[in-house]
Amino acid sequence: MSQPHEIWFTRCPVPTATGIAAERGSLAAEFAPDGIAVRSLRDAADRAEADGLPLSHYTHELTALFREGGNVPALWARSRGEATRLIALTWIEERQSILVREGSDLRSAEQLRGRRLAVPRHDIAIDFWRAMALHGHAGALGLAGLSLADAELVEVPGVRQGQWEGELAALRDGRVDAVYVKGAVAVETARRYGAEVAIDLDAVPDRRARVNNGTPRPITVHQRLLDERPDLVTRFLAVLLEAADWAAGHPGDLARILGAETGAGPEGVAGAYREGTADSLRLDLSQERLSLLARQERFLSEQGFLPAPVDVAGWADHEPLRRARELRAARAAAAPAGTGSAATADAGTAGAGTPGAGTAGAAEVPATTP
User: Of residues 7 and 52, which shows the higher confidence score?
Assistant: First the structure.
């Protein structure tokens, strides 16, 4: 691969270091001196499915693509044989909970036995919504030593526009007794439907109860890009490390960006992302996070979402993040005091009008994307 004219990124409408870096303009600033445009997949209309969703967000077929998003599509793409590599993981608590109708007596994991639990079905290549609901319910049931076999799983037709609308409508209408939700939009949608939190999974000390599509959340690249232009991968990750550091020191600005990234208002953001979120965007590839992702892989395989097993440990490449940390440290040491890294010191407002920079309010994919 010679010097590319462009590199691509895609992220989900959730908190991501990529989204922070894109909104601040630091990704564009990093590669502009090389004549490399940094573009979002939302610009790739000619590569979109019939419903307008960019295929590579799920399949990762673009070799010059960086993806930070739900682990269900990432694992699915790898299991289908796409030559991707896992180069970092984040873990962000996103208000995962089991909701019930107002006035319901269901308030504990033990009471889920025999209850009707909503499981949506969407007509998409990899139904991450269904996977999320199944693992969310399994996590809640597991708190009482129960499994999915101890409850009644009720299929609910998925709604293409509007997160959680199909499940919460079924709850309101009495077709199900409980639904799994997560994230800022879920906080607002639940309030609109009058749903109440029965089980707060975020309050459970054991993280294994919350392993799901976004916990942990992977950053992946194509093996070809990693082989032929490892320098670009190192620099991209270094910008994400800087963005995560910046977020930790600017919680107020982060809340504004999260509203733009998630499509939720201040109430939803405040309800979903609690104290400590600003510190949780930091990239890691620790054994603990790899073990949690392996737990997700086993669940997805058991439930039939993956066509072939994925060796999570073998999928991970630790070198890009190690090199990026070295580069980030070198830049921080070389930068004048108080200015941040050399590549991003003046990038705070560069995103406006920059192709692919991700201006506020412009997450590149609709709410149906993980």
Answer: 7
Verdict on whether the full-model pTM lies above 0.70: yes
Identify the pLDDT of residue 279.
72
% pLDDT > 90, the chain = 66
- pLDDT averaged over every residue in the chain: 87
| Cis before 4 (ω within 30) | no
Least confident of 27-36, 255-264, 279-288: 255-264
pLDDT tens across 23-40, in order? 999 999 999 999 999 998
**Which amino acid is residue 30, in one-letter code?**
E
Name the band, by pLDDT with cuts 50, 70 and 90, for residue 163. Answer: confident
Calculate the CA 21 to chain-centre distance: 15
Q: CB burial class (10 A; 0-12, 13-18, 19+) of residue 311?
A: exposed
Give the per-residue SS3 of the chain.
CCCCCEEEEEECCCCCHHHHHHHHCHHHHHHHHHCCEEEEHHHCHHHECCCCCECHHHHCCCCCEEEECCHHHHHHHHHCCCCEEEEEEECCCCCCEEEEECCCCCCCHHHHCCCEEEEEECCCCCCHHHHHHHHHHHHHHHCCCCCHHHCEEEEEECCCCCCCHHHHHHHHCCCCCEEEECCHHHHHHHHHHCEEEEEEHHHCCCHHHHCECCECEEEEEEHHHHHHCHHHHHHHHHHHHHHHHHHHHCHHHHHHHHHHHHCCCHHHHHHHCCCCHHHCCCCECCHHHHHHHHHHHHHHHHCCCCCCCCCHHHHECCHHHHHHHHHHHHHHHHCCCCCCCCCCCCCCCCCCCCCCCCCCCCCCCCCCCC
Cα–Cα distance, 143 to 79 (Å, whole number): 29
In 10 A of CB 328, how many CB atoms?
A: 22
Q: Is the pLDDT of residue 108 over 60?
A: yes
